[in-house]
Amino acid sequence: MSALIVFLPQHAATASTEFEYVLTHDGSAIADHGAALATLLPATTRAGSEVVAIVPAALLSWHRVELPKGTAAGSPRMRAVLEGALEDQLLDEPEALHFALQPQARAGEPAWVATCDRAWLRAAVVALEAAERPAARIVPEFAPEGVTTFYAVGQADQPMVVVAGTEGVTAVPLSTQVLPLLPALADDTPCIAEPAVAEIAEQVLQRRPELRHPSGRWMRAAQSDWDLAQFEFSSSGRARAWKKMGTAWADILSAPQWKPARWGAVALVVINLLAMNAWAWRERSALDQKREAIRTTLTETFPQVKVVVDAPLQMQRELTALRLATGTSSGNDLESMLGALSAAAPAQRALTSIEYSNGELRVRGMALPAEEARTLASSLKAQGFTANTQGEALAITAGSAR
Question: Which end of the chain has a smaller Cβ tally under 10 Å, C or N?
């Protein structure tokens, strides 16, 4: 997945706001990271690239609801349903909040809902759009999924601890006073800290945490199934579908995990091309052998033929000349045609004229009814001749009509 991942600031974004970002070309390696004004953020020029905005954990609150039966996730009434379900849990007015439902939520089952300040999110989205870096997706920094993990994040002057897992997401200041409010930190609970707050995390949690740069976590967050761009922040279904298709195609073309598949596809194409070329070469070789056999037959049968241009035509000409020289009859001869006509024609039919030219016999005076004409044509066909009625004449040629 080629993406520009932008970490949204915690204050309202303006034209002078700097955004932290991570640029990746394959979804696994960091190509660039830093902080810049929205207008100076790197451009996503690769096919299928997208801009992913990340909402900080401190600005999201998480709630568990059960969707009423008969409610679909894409229903236009979903926001009103969520407002009613969360009315007693919200500290702010519902009109001031943005709601986002978890992916694949089903009616009648518990589902997570994320809320944040609507005006703050709109300001950040508008700032990116004004800089021609519109966010294709908006994802949470942490989501209620996976194994429960402690994360120490932020800066030394404002450290925070985030506990994220299937039981929810909790973000509070990193201090000994609030530690009792968090789930118990078991010995096997993963503990991760950013370099800026690692020392504080070790003092408060009484454990040496694993150090990780936030950019790596943002890349993993960008690959989440969550998308907070819902309701008024969502793009059209068609645009989202095309964007997903473009991103998937770009992943297939460049992502490391698709490298074996790409090599397999290339090998398959090469093998097919080689097989097709081998088959074509074999067919050409067989055809050349047949042509050579015909040429050999012609030159051996008629040694006077020195130059072979069209072997079948030249052989036909030589056979005709040989028959004329020896007086041997053929199917094209007048005698053969008259004999066949005599055997097939009805009795007591007087011919008024007989014409023969270039292997075609024309006779007049038969005037056969339609049924008798069809019978005559069938009889001549059985003898290897074709009969066609042309006006008052009956034309007969050697060979069957195609």
Answer: C
